[in-house]
């Protein structure tokens, strides 16, 4: 297939690009290389494959530019991963998150509809579950409240996807990713930040008493789910959790990083942050059954791999 990966220079996007290339697809990326984190890191993420892909430096918020690209390039499929990510910064810049994640998604769906795109996969997030405390989280839950602008933009994106699928008979799959980690993980995410700071002997900020729990997903498992979603033949619109279905307390995560890095953390305990979820845990039975999703890397195996990458990564 001729596939466009939006956000293809980012953490998850760059892994997807590599996987798609290795399975024989014709890959283009759309990315604006913004400075949410150092754009040099994004350039480095795709350095190894830059000669094999078409790179379109386009801002999703620019509907005319998105439209022009789609009419010119005639893609078969879109994996829409570009977004402003992160809960806390979305509280500071809700408009930016809305424009990128909601309007940007709409611009893509519109261009996809106009140019007859066959398949569209949307990166949603576990954050749509808000403060639900019943675990594991099932796709069947009736969700009525999100607790951050980021999460609200992601659930809005899902609804735009299902609407376009319904109106225009587009094949769309939305995937709720649960905290993804691995080589090239975004530098703002906890595993990456903690590893860097513990390694450098600097204190880490721990929000809350360390009992919040997260379902951490190793990047290869996420990518396996995305690849399956791109080949999905089920209902025209569908929605799946992609997690590891294992929850780890924050204090155990820190202990795991200490062990992998070989240093003790200096902990700066701070109050819980507004917008943060107390727990995430994916029910992945639907993805297992219908996508053949089969995560194989628990945190105990993935964390040392991440730390190994961190210690040996090339300079950006
Ligand atoms: P990332 O920030 O590394 O990648 C996103 C990419 O999108 C970046 O390269 C960025 O430059 C690009 N982008 C942002 N705004 C853009 C715009 N206006 N126009 C064009 N490109 C733009 O993030 P990631 O961690 O790889 O996340 C990928 C997707 O998965 C996002 O949609 C995110 O919300 C979702 N997600 C990620 C996680 C996770 O744990 N990493 C969890 C849940 C959901």
Describe the 3D structure:
With 316 residues, the chain is of the alpha/beta class. It has one domain: Rossmann fold. It has a seven-stranded parallel sheet, sandwiched between helices. A two-stranded parallel ribbon has the order 7-10. α6 links the parallel β5 and β6. α3 runs parallel beside α5, α5 packs parallel to α6 and α7 packs across α9. The longest helix is centred in the first third of the chain and has 21 residues. The two termini are 31 Å apart. The mean pLDDT is 97. The structure holds nicotinamide-adenine-dinucleotide (NAD). Nicotinamide-adenine-dinucleotide binds next to α1, α5 and β5.
Report a brief summary of the structure.
The protein is 42% helix and 18% strand. The strands form four sheets. The chain has a seven-stranded parallel sheet, with helices on both faces. The protein has a two-stranded parallel sheet with strand order 7-10.
């Amino acid at each position: 297939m001729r596939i466009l990966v939006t956000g293809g220079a980012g953490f998850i996007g760059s892994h997807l690009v590599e996987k798609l290339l290795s399975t024989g697809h014709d890959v283009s990326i759309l990315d604006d290389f913004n400075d949410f984190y150092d754009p040099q890191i994004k350039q480095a993420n795709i350095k190894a494959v830059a000669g094999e892909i078409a790179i379109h430096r386009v801002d999703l918020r620019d509907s005319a530019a998105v439209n022009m690209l789609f009419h010119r390039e005639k893609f078969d499929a879109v994996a829409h991963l570009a977004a402003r990510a992160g809960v806390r910064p979305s509280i500071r810049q809700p408009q930016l998150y809305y424009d990128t994640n909601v309007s940007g998604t709409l611009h893509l769906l519109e261009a996809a509809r106009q140019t007859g795109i066959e398949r569209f996969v949307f990166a949603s997030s576990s954050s749509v579950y808000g403060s639900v405390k019943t675990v594991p989280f099932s796709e069947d839950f009736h969700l009525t409240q999100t607790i951050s602008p980021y999460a609200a933009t992601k659930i809005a994106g899902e609804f735009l996807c299902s609407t376009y699928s319904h109106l225009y008979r587009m094949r769309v799959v939305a995937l709720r990713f649960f905290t993804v980690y691995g080589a090239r993980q975004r530098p703002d995410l906890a595993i990456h930040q903690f590893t860097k700071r513990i390694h450098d002997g600097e204190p880490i900020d721990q929000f809350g008493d360390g009992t919040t729990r997260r379902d951490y997903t190793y990047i290869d498992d996420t990518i396996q789910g995305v690849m399956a979603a791109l080949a999905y033949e089920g209902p025209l619109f569908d929605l799946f959790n992609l997690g590891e279905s294992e929850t780890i307390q924050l204090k155990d995560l820190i202990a795991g990083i200490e062990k992998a890095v070989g240093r003790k953390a200096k902990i700066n305990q701070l109050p819980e942050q507004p917008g943060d979820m107390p727990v995430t845990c994916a029910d992945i039975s639907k993805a297992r059954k219908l996508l053949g999703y089969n995560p194989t890397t628990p945190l105990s195996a993935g964390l040392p791999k991440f730390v190994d990458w961190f210690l040996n990564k090339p300079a950006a």
